[in-house]
């Protein structure tokens, strides 16, 4: 919600196709980028702008909507009044890079009860979108704190002749409570401040196996936090140890990746016996937010300076890409240190056109190395019902040569496995049904927990760790994690503890939602 709700709103009478920019630019988000829609500059977010009919004079009345995006992660560059019921909304492009226009997050207030509107978001930069397959924007309000997806029947995605044949996403909405401030978003927001508060809380617990430090600082001097999770005895100099590196949020608009990463962190620092065993044998390095400036500014893909940070791993600049320069330098030092054996690099993303979780891996000429590289995704598919091995691909596409996965896969030791983990912005399907289950914040975190558990399977398979599960020490899962657990093999198999099933190489479905959406088709795109 806007922190400036008590300020007098800017009165903005506007017409569709008017040359007047209705946005009061937020200086904190200024850039030189320019939208290619109507050739108009969109260099900042709207700041408490009241949209009133043409020729209206005086203070805004109830029902004259006030829009705001002048807050962390906010994105809305302009609003055009069409009529009393319709508004054209323009996404602000990424700073210094007008190509990317996808993420939006804004608030609406000063509504009337039962006021019905149609919002048209008119300048999406992508043609392919899960909006064609049932995905919808999410909404919450001051009196209803949980995000909810809009009904599919209220959302339309189409190519519009009125907007240079650009793709438009239109949705209808009825405001039901006059005193509420409503917030609309492309996906579940996860801000830089939310991450800092989360890491502060972990730090206050004074866990001896968790270390936090800023690896580097961004261009705007935000922290690039590095978490080290391991038994302190394992970190002793001269002791050989295996290393897993997990990163997320290199693309700021891919907010689900932050929830997956948080689920991973929560599990790996927990009292779960599996987590304890992994910490005793593996050093985990985690960078939860690789692009803190882009996240703060509400960009979709780029950093403050307009760089796609997942295309500069080959030769990152210390001044232009300090985040990638810092983490790559850290990784290369580990690679050259005889005390460390770098086993995994996993970079977490979100995907805007495909269902489920899945991975991108690398292709190697050595058949034995390639075979080993395919093991981890298959283990993850057994532990996470939303992970699709069919969507998982291995490639060396030239367009992805500058990604972390491709770059590190080519310069680290041969035993290192480098992957991109993708998760859908929308939903997943299981192997036993064509019904799509929409992701929630909790389900994203569940994928992160399952990712962490899969490392036990991997290290069991190569006899690096051993485990003898005991009923007396196996933790009982919370009620929300054992809902409707069904066997993939038999619907009559009794409900069991998920961790015990994992240790016994059994896989189970977890159904937690009743919302049903149509089956989607898969469309690949660059990571």
From TrEMBL:
GO MF terms held by the record: metallocarboxypeptidase activity; zinc ion binding
InterPro entries listed in its UniProt record: Cytosolic_carboxypeptidase, Pepdidase_M14_N, Peptidase_M14
Entries under Pfam families matching the protein: Pepdidase_M14_N, Peptidase_M14
Domain Peptidase M14: 188-459
Polar residues composition-biased segments: 1-13
Example GO BP: proteolysis
Entry-linked SUPFAM superfamilies: Zn-dependent exopeptidases
Top-level taxon: Eukaryota
Classification via CDD domains: M14_AGBL4_like
Active site, renumbered: 422 (proton donor/acceptor)
Compositional bias per record (Low complexity), positions renumbered to this chain: 14-32
Annotated spans, Disordered: 1-38
Cofactor(s) listed in the protein's UniProt record: Zn(2+)
Similarity annotation: Belongs to the peptidase M14 family.
Name of this chain's protein: Peptidase M14 domain-containing protein
